[in-house]
Automatic annotation (TrEMBL):
It comes from Microbacterium telephonicum. Keywords: Oxidoreductase. Transmembrane segments: none annotated. Coiled coil: none annotated. Belongs to the flavin monoamine oxidase family. The lineage of its organism: Bacteria, Bacillati, Actinomycetota, Actinomycetes, Micrococcales. GO terms for molecular function: oxidoreductase activity. Gene3D superfamilies: FAD/NAD(P)-binding domain. This is Putrescine oxidase.
């Protein structure tokens, strides 16, 4: 059992933890990063499956994500744009396929007008929200007590408008049923991307990818940290006092003045804290849960949809795969589609056999792209729900009423323990950008206290 003493111990080698470690080390403090898995990156994982490079976790970078963009540039990585030439497709309530361009779905004029009006209303509300303090808005309590679905349904009785407005923060982002989270949580999700309109703009939110895969960000950060990163070290116990902590993993004990807990908050309760965390943390952490989405990868010998003048961008609140995109790798002759199946649909699919699941998903992709979609050369489902050290996707959010009740306390350190994760970010919330911001934030707090 190795026994180390460092200034800072970071638990979790995702983007947040590796950023925090990099920052404190840059400032001259000694650091050890303990990671449960046998790889770094957490929810960033670029892997090769049957010869195809797939982004099993996070991949897209949007123009407002300055912290991620700075890190990408600093690490010397290159980006490229998502393929978006040609028409997008939308499947309506009667199953009819419509081609369209631009942001507005091809719906009836009345529905289009309703969507535009409510989007304008939402943009105005989002503009009043500070993503770092949504609970500070004068109407925070009121907006946190009504579900996203109930609020939308109170604005209009046009079901197609509601479904299309709901899914931007529902199936597509928080990946929970829209009755399960609040209007305030939805406004935070939009505010974290600048506006509700940004969030529904696929060309904005899914703008660029990194050549060679986004996992290179944590891989290169870890490479620079070198021997300070320890893999296969699930932390089981943190003994702490105001003077510091002893962190015990399966193979190591690290004594440190400061701890950064850089994992999804839903996993904190897997660690024994001695003494126990305060009452507030015990309560608060029970009101946060992971969303759930299956990311489906289908690789074909060529991007056949482009021959039909299709961009690959596809949406439908009525389809099993509520959204899908051309996800062809940079310089790849083969064509890759990526589709997403969210929340209750994902639950239902996992009750089926692997063959039935694949058939149902490919059937849904065929509704968008035609029968050729049913025969990929490589097929893979990213299932983060079964990953012991993540337990869902993309990230965690508060239940109804939890955000204004507890949000302000989520990042507040407890004794020597600071918290960092994309799931508690303001700007970049639930994204790699937010993870980096939270890594920087935890490191800055530690450096302030160390200079103290
Ligand atoms: P993360 O979960 O990555 O890291 C935590 C680390 O802690 C993990 O490595 C874990 O193993 C470790 N750990 C947990 N418990 C431990 C213990 N007890 N001891 C030691 N280690 C422990 N974002 C984006 O910007 N663009 C995108 O396109 C997408 N798309 C996307 C798709 C899918 C399928 C997923 C799952 C996620 C995304 N995301 C995304 C979200 C993005 O990937 C995510 O927000 C960040 O990578 C989270 O980084 P963190 O470092 O905060 O947590």
């Amino acid at each position: 059992m190795a026994d180390l003493t460092r200034d800072v111990v970071v638990i979790g080698a995702g983007a947040a933890g590796l950023t925090a470690a990099t920052e404190v080390k840059k400032a001259g403090l000694s650091v050890a990063v303990l990671e449960a898995r046998d790889r770094v990156g957490g929810r960033l994982w670029t892997d090769t499956i049957e010869g195809a490079m797939l982004e099993i976790g996070g991949q897209w970078v949007s123009p407002d994500q300055d912290a991620l963009k700075e890190t990408i540039a600093e690490l010397g990585l290159e980006t490229y744009s998502r393929y978006r030439e040609g028409d997008s497709v939308y499947v309506g309530p009667d199953g009819t396929l419509h081609r369209f361009t631009g942001e507005m779905f091809p719906v009836a004029p009345e529905t289009e007008k309703t969507i535009a009006e409510i989007t304008e209303r939402l943009d105005a509300m989002v503009a009043e929200i500070d993503p770092d303090a949504p609970w500070a808005h004068p109407r925070a309590a009121e907006w946190d007590e009504v579900s996203w679905d109930a609020w939308l349904r109170a604005q209009t009785d046009d079901d197609e408008a509601v479904r299309n407005l709901a899914f931007a923060t529902g199936s597509a982002m928080l990946t929970k049923p829209t009755h399960a989270f609040s209007l305030l949580q939805s406004l935070l999700m939009a505010a974290s991307a600048g506006s509700y309109s940004n969030l529904v703009d696929a060309d904005f939110i899914l703008d660029k990818r990194v050549v060679g895969g986004l996992q290179q960000v944590p891989l290169l950060l870890a490479e620079r940290l070198g021997d300070d990163v320890f893999l296969g070290q699930p932390v089981r116990t943190i003994e702490w006092s105001d003077a510091g902590a002893t962190v015990i993993s399966d193979g190591m004990t690290v004594h440190a003045r400061h701890v950064v807990l850089a994992l999804a908050p839903v996993l904190y309760n897997r660690i024994s804290f001695v003494p126990a965390l305060p009452r507030l943390q015990h309560q608060m952490h029970q009101h946060i849960s992971m969303g759930f989405v299956i990311k489906v990868h289908a690789v074909y010998d060529r991007p056949f949809w482009r021959e039909q003048g299709l961009s690959g961008t596809a949406f439908s609140p009525y389809e099993l795969c509520h959204e899908a995109y051309d996800n062809t790798n940079h310089g790849d002759e083969r064509g890759t589609l990526v589709g997403f199946v969210s929340d209750r649909n994902a639950d239902d699919l996992f009750r089926l056999s692997a063959e039935e699941r694949k058939e149902r998903i490919l059937e849904s992709l065929a509704h968008y792209y035609g029968p050729e979609a049913k025969n990929p050369a490589v097929y893979y489902e990213s299932d983060w729900g079964s990953e012991e050290w993540t337990r869902g996707a993309y990230a965690a959010s508060f239940d109804l009423g939890g955000l204004h009740r507890y949000g302000a306390d989520l990042r507040t350190p407890v004794g020597p323990i600071s918290f960092a994760c994309s799931d508690m970010a303001g700007a970049g919330y639930q994204h790699v950008d937010g993870a980096i911001r939270m890594g920087r934030f935890a490191a800055a707090g530690i450096l302030d206290r160390a200079r103290g």
